[in-house]
Amino acid sequence: ISSKYSNADLGRRNLEILAAATLETTLLRENQPAPNPDYVAAMEELSAHALTAYRSLVYETDGFDEYFWSSTVINEIATLHIGSRPPSRKKTRRIEDLRAIPWVFSWAQCRLMLPGWYGFGSAVDQWLTANPDKGMPFLQELYREWPFFKAQLSNMDMVLSKSSIAIARRYSELVPDEELRERIFERIRAEWQRSIDYLLEISGHEKLLHDNPLLDRSIQNRFPYLDPLNHMQVELMKKYRQQLENRKVLRGIQLTINGISAGLRNSG
Predict the structure, then answer these.
(1) Same domain assignment for residues 65 and 179
(2) Taking Cα atoms as reference points, which of 241, 244, 44 lies closest to residue 146?
(3) Which phi and psi (to 5°) does residue 96 adopt?
(4) 111 and 57 fall within a common domain
(5) Which domain range does residue 22 map to?
(6) Are residues 7 and 127 in the same domain?
(7) pLDDT for res 26
(8) pLDDT, tens only, 3-28
């Protein structure tokens, strides 16, 4: 909110954009025809494959809950007291009991942004295997001709552009079990790369945010400030967990959480 409405001029500009977009959508845009049934069917297939891949990692992978609780700031987020409800519905470490906002917030802090893209690469892979007659040209047509599909990929493009697998690797160091750490991180890294490769191939772009240079520049300009905060957060978390919850160290972690959230402009 502060990034858009912190002063009168900025607030007025953002309200103008909001009003103009609303008027354009409601008054100027012609009624959109129903989407091609083949497009809808392909989207449903991709969605089902992505859901299967996502659930396989989160709910069916041995040790994933331990990896998550060790490699993210989920525990430390609870100390901020920024919401009216606790991060988890119950006093357990089960992923199923976590609320959505702390779940997404935690993955954003470690720069994986995992809920925003995980499963896409596997979904495209499986769809291409099952539909060799249509193949990649059909998905590229889907991107060009169906605004809904393009919007989904554009959102994922933005999320992936804020991710950093190198920094995520630093957070994986917080997982004490080396075998667990390498097994799960490598699986995430492979899916991250696969998702980016397919996103670029479908869109025909050479890099992420190719068609949104203003946002790309904005994000790139924030990285020199964000990356040190992430490295600092990892070191503080190591100290905090080794020193039996030192309050000064915890305060440092809380400050890095606020800084990273402001820099990413993403919370939960």
Answers:
(1) yes
(2) 44
(3) -60, -25
(4) yes
(5) 1-31
(6) no
(7) 81
(8) 778 888 888 999 999 999 888 878 87
